[in-house]
Design brief:
2 domains; globular; 2 helices; disordered N terminus; Neuraminidase; four-stranded antiparallel sheet; mainly beta; 260 residues; single chain; 12% helix; six-stranded mixed sheet
Length: 260
């Protein structure tokens, strides 16, 4: 009986530890969600803070979100706590997206100097790492893909095209169109990347989209139901891989069963 109970606990841990898509919108009364891209099932997490952008630090297993200039951090279950005001050259700087790479936050803004900014996750101090033409790009979503070392962004500007782009922030700075938005979509503000798949997150009722980056340019989008019941202005998304702590705990349980 003890082995059966232990096995059930391990299976439960494995379920909790599965990779997941974290999403939120810029409304303090709307819950953030843990969404299963395979089924569209969404589990409410916490509310009380607007989400303009979101990023996940796998080392600390913390989610970062921002409400304009205000940076917050949280566990998957919350609640979020204030970290710092995001600033650029000493002045408050409002970001519309967040991404995580190499121990730092990155974000974009759609007013004044439009660019990709590196943001210190402890102090909120930011600096430009890739400037781009604001007449051609309007990046509302940003995510980093560790598989190819590129950032990706969702741009709502119709010139040259609304769509998903790669941004070589750590290299030569090239910006390339991967795929135009699916269907009649014109406004996609959330983006997350997990296991070489880009998840394009909208801020109104309907569906989210997935794009397998191994397809290269001109591939086909998938879609799955989103949890929203109201239309908002901004949204953020982050991919949360299986937490190492839970994976190790589950492994320990399996080893305990094997010893019995």
């Amino acid at each position: 009986m003890r082995s059966v109970v232990t096995l059930l606990c391990v299976l439960s841990l494995a379920t909790v530890a599965n990779a997941q898509l974290f999403v939120g919108v810029d409304d303090v009364t709307v819950f953030t969600y843990d969404v299963d891209p395979g089924t569209g099932n969404a589990t409410p997490l916490w509310d009380g803070v607007e989400v303009w952008g979101a990023a996940y630090d796998p080392a600390s297993e913390m989610i970062f979100v921002n409400d304009g200039t205000e940076l917050y951090s949280s566990t998957i279950t919350g609640p979020p706590g204030f970290v710092a005001d995001i600033t650029y050259q000493g002045a408050a700087s409002s970001m519309v997206s967040l991404a995580w790479a190499g121990g730092m936050l990155y974000g974009t803004k759609n007013i004044t100097t439009e660019a990709v900014y590196e943001i210190d996750p402890k102090t909120g101090v930011s600096d430009i790492v890739l400037a781009y033409d604001s007449a051609s790009y309007d990046f509302g979503g940003l995510a980093y893909n560790p598989i190819d070392g590129l950032f990706y962004g969702t741009s709502d500007d119709s010139t040259p095209a609304r769509g998903l782009y790669s941004l070589d922030v750590f290299g030569g700075g090239a910006i390339n169109l991967i795929a135009e938005y699916p269907g009649a979509e014109t406004d996609i503000d959330g983006l997350a990347i997990g296991e070489n798949v880009a998840y394009l997150v909208t801020d109104e009722p309907g569906v989210f989209y997935s794009y397998d980056l191994s397809q290269g340019a001109g591939g086909v989008y998938g879609s799955f139901q989103n949890p929203w019941t109201s239309s908002e202005v901004f949204c953020g998304a982050a991919w949360i891989p299986e937490p190492a702590s839970l994976a190790l705990l589950a492994l320990g349980g399996l080893l305990a069963i094997r010893r019995r």
